[in-house]
Design goal:
Blueprint lengths: L1 H21 L5 E7 L3 E3 L4 E10 L3 E2 L7 E2 L2 E12 L5 E11 L4 E5 L3 E5 L5 E5 L3 E6 L23 H9 L3 H24 L8 H15 L7 H20 L8 H10 L4 H19 L6 H28 L2
Parallel strand pairs: 2-11
Antiparallel strand pairs: 1-3, 3-7, 4-9, 5-6, 6-7, 8-11, 9-10
């Protein structure tokens, strides 16, 4: 894989150099570049488009993009205009894109209109770039042995707790047994729903877990309840870690109000609320959901969290 990536990057560099030489004498030229050509699902790609125009040539209105082929535009930055010299104006556009479909894809060419020094309208296009999207489930990992989670509020180890209680004195129980039971319950729940990766931020961990669940395709296998249970656990864990909300003790409606009070981004809060509400309907009311609908709801939540991840990355870039 490392050799393939190196070859792709080398080919991209050669293409860029060739394009630079070809368009050196063109009055208007456009180049497109990406920060990486191989990603895993829900990762984001930073796309940079640079358009240079000689004096007398005016670029049209900035292109507003919501998609780039199979890729959704998660976020974009305001265009940067510079004058590197030689009577040239340089426009730089930056986008963050992602996709929820595995395999080989292409970021297509982007067209930019401009007016010539005689007032005629023309356009310039970038060169397409190939990108590969791999699964977050690594080679050798099995996706067939996922077991349903137990109810989140079940009290674990009742027999052990009673043995500990009756085997201890009243004073020791009051001081020690309660904290021990709480720690045991937390450790057991962490084993059930998965221990978060300490090297990742809460939003990174949530995106990775939701991408893994999407790769399992449980609704298509007739396991919709299990799908929603895993999704709900991941989202509740994210809300607890990121915003310190007691998510495991509140209903979807209560959490929606709590997210509004916490000032969480509206799109993100609505997407999370929608999935948690669907999870409750499927798990407790035995409501039916089509596999396509279940996956689309998950994709909406991933897109909302991806936007939060993009804002997190830009904030980190501003920190010296």
């Amino acid at each position: 894989m490392k050799r393939v990536v190196a070859c792709v990057l080398l080919l991209g560099a050669a293409t860029w150099a060739l394009a630079t030489a070809m368009f050196a004498d063109e009055p208007v030229s456009a180049t497109l570049s990406v920060d990486r050509n191989v990603i895993t699902m829900v990762d984001q790609i930073r796309v940079a488009v640079v358009v240079t125009a000689q004096n007398g040539y005016r670029l049209g209105a900035p292109v507003v993009l919501k998609t780039m082929g199979d890729f959704d535009v998660v976020d974009s930055a305001p265009p940067v205009v510079g004058n590197p010299g030689g009577g040239v104006t340089r426009y730089t556009f930056r986008y963050w894109v992602t996709t929820f479909t595995l395999g080989d894809h292409v970021i297509p060419s982007i067209e930019f209109p401009y007016s010539t020094d005689q007032g005629e309208i023309a356009s310039v296009r970038t060169t397409p770039i190939a990108v590969r999207v791999d699964s977050v489930i690594q080679s050798g990992e099995s996706s067939a042995d996922i077991k349903p989670l137990r109810a989140q509020l079940d009290v674990p180890g009742a027999e052990a707790s009673r043995a500990l209680f009756w085997g201890s004195g009243a004073a020791i129980t009051a001081v020690i047994a309660t904290p021990v039971l709480l720690l045991y319950r937390r450790a057991r729940r962490r084993r059930l729903i998965g221990v978060p990766d300490l090297d990742r931020t809460p939003v990174q961990g949530a995106l990775r877990e939701l991408g893994r669940i999407a790769d399992l395709h449980l609704p298509e296998k007739g396991r919709a309840a299990e799908h929603y249970e895993l999704v709900a656990a991941a989202l509740r864990r994210y809300l607890t870690q990121q915003f310190a909300l007691p998510a495991d003790r509140r209903t979807a409606r209560e959490l929606h109000l709590a997210m509004e009070r916490a000032g969480i981004d509206r799109r993100q809060a609505d997407a999370i609320y929608g999935l948690l509400r669907e999870s409750e309907a499927v798990r407790f009311q035995r409501a039916q959901r089509q596999p396509r609908h279940a996956q689309q709801s998950l994709a909406d939540a991933i897109a909302a969290l991806a936007k939060a991840r993009s804002a997190e990355r830009r904030t980190a870039e501003l920190v010296p």
